[in-house]
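As noted in the main text, all predictions were made from sequence alone. Below is one such record, for Myosin light chain alkali.
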Amino acid sequence: MADVSSDDVERATFAFNIYDTEGGGNLDAFFLGDLLRALGLNPTQGLIEKLGGTKKKGEKTFTFEEFLPIFSQARKDKDNGVYEDFIECLKLYDKAENGLMVGAELSHILLSLGER
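Prediction:
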């Protein structure tokens, strides 16, 4: 893959082997989202399903060669939030502008907002 550096391939290989629980060179599609998150991405459930992830274990598997294009495509996704995006969002709740927010508001945000 031209858009995946050799360092990224090495990191992806390492993470893939961790999630290859059977040791046969295959990843259960159920763990696709976990693997992408372990590689520093923040995919939505919708994106994971679009890329071939499943909701049940044992339905589908990927080899590493099949996973690399999926990894590449997930990296290109523009809906991925980055660290700075989350900090900006949390600053909305910092009323005193001192880097702190009310714990109840944080709890509300985490429990009620986000992907459904």
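The beta strands are 26-28, 61-63. The chain has a mean pLDDT of 88. These features were considered when defining construct boundaries for the mutagenesis experiments described in Section 2.9.
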